[in-house]
Amino acid sequence: MPTSSLNALRSYGWDEAYEHAFAEHQAAGLLPARVALVDRGQATVVTATGSVRATWSAHAGQSPLPCTGDWVAITDTPQPELVAVLPRRTAILRSSASRTSRAQVLAANVDTAVVVESLAKPISAGRIERMLALAWESGAIPVVVLTKADLAEGSVDDVREEVAALALDVDVLVTSVATGEGLDILAALLTGTIVLLGPSGAGKSSLGNALLGSQQLATGEVRASDGKGRHTTVHRELLPLPNGGVLIDTPGLRAVGLHDTEDGIQQVFAEIEELARQCRFTDCQHANEPGCAVRVAIEAGNLSPRRLDSYRKLQRESAWAASRDDARLRAEREKHRKAITQHLRATYGFREQQS
């Protein structure tokens, strides 16, 4: 591939590792591209020469299905076809909104996951913990951004300290698109492929426009009655940032179901994990067992009961999703085995009739 073409793709995150992974596709005459938008069974992909619309066959057994942020192989034809998805380095996953055991990929190959929470209303500690678990589990580096500082009631510093206590080993920044507060610091901190995660009305699209330097993302008013906003972003879309890197905006997330996020939960609640290692019993449930270091920390005021309750809730949810996924895989394997058995029986029966 010409150097000029490589440079065009590098601005979207293409590197030597992706080039190596693409080698067999290049040998087959396919072209590399990055998925910017998926809708109506088609994808807008960015190639070395610009954006094109690509299709893929729903009957081709495509696995995984393409998602915003994916690197893919497409045909070099007037109507490009998406043939393969390159292995993902990271993926933001949540339980499917259909309540099946399958995970929904929100964004792929993300380097920085920005958890957005508005200061215009009381923060949701549980939601921040949940989003951080999602981010850590993906393999991306999380950052918490508190938006709308100009609309905050009470002390912004107090809220920031409260959030910092939830977001261990995570940068927590205070910003305001209206005044410009914190935007330069945020822009300098973000690198690579960045995804914005948060509920409607948190200011994700306004923050995204500030980072993009133009009004490319639709924004909407927030209802005064409940502080919630409309879903002005209806698709996950990848856009280039003026100083390098790319941004993925996501629709507001009303519900974020965890999907087998044990490692992410351990990272979010690292202080509880550390205390648990000091408990007398390795299977301590942190209830009434003697020698429980977690209960001692709560009684001493060093750990809040809410924090432990949140930890337990997310653990239960993650374990349940993992067990459902295991059950689904077992059922699919059994279905496949039965189909093979039925086919063999039909084949043998036909042969016996012919003999």
Automatic annotation (TrEMBL):
Residues 108-254 form the EngC GTPase domain. InterPro entries: G_CP_dom, P-loop_NTPase, Ribosome_biogen_GTPase_RsgA, RsgA_GTPase_dom. Zn(2+) binds at residues 279, 284, 286, 292. Its main location: cytoplasm. It comes from the Bacteria. Its EC number is 3.6.1.-. Binds 1 zinc ion per subunit. Residues 98-256 form the CP-type G domain. It is found in: Cytoplasm. Keywords: Cytoplasm, GTP-binding, Hydrolase, Metal-binding, Nucleotide-binding, Ribosome biogenesis, RNA-binding, rRNA-binding, Zinc. It is an enzyme of class 3 (hydrolase). Its cofactor is Zn(2+). Coiled coil: none annotated. GTP binds at residues 147-150, 198-206. Gene3D superfamilies: P-loop containing nucleotide triphosphate hydrolases (3.40.50.300), Probable gtpase engc, domain 3 (1.10.40.50). HAMAP family: GTPase_RsgA (MF_01820). NCBIfam families: ribosome small subunit-dependent GTPase A (TIGR00157). PANTHER family: SMALL RIBOSOMAL SUBUNIT BIOGENESIS GTPASE RSGA. Monomer. Associates with 30S ribosomal subunit, binds 16S rRNA. One of several proteins that assist in the late maturation steps of the functional core of the 30S ribosomal subunit. Helps release RbfA from mature subunits. May play a role in the assembly of ribosomal proteins into the subunit. Circularly permuted GTPase that catalyzes slow GTP hydrolysis, GTPase activity is stimulated by the 30S ribosomal subunit. Belongs to the TRAFAC class YlqF/YawG GTPase family. RsgA subfamily. This is Small ribosomal subunit biogenesis GTPase RsgA. It comes from Phytohabitans aurantiacus.
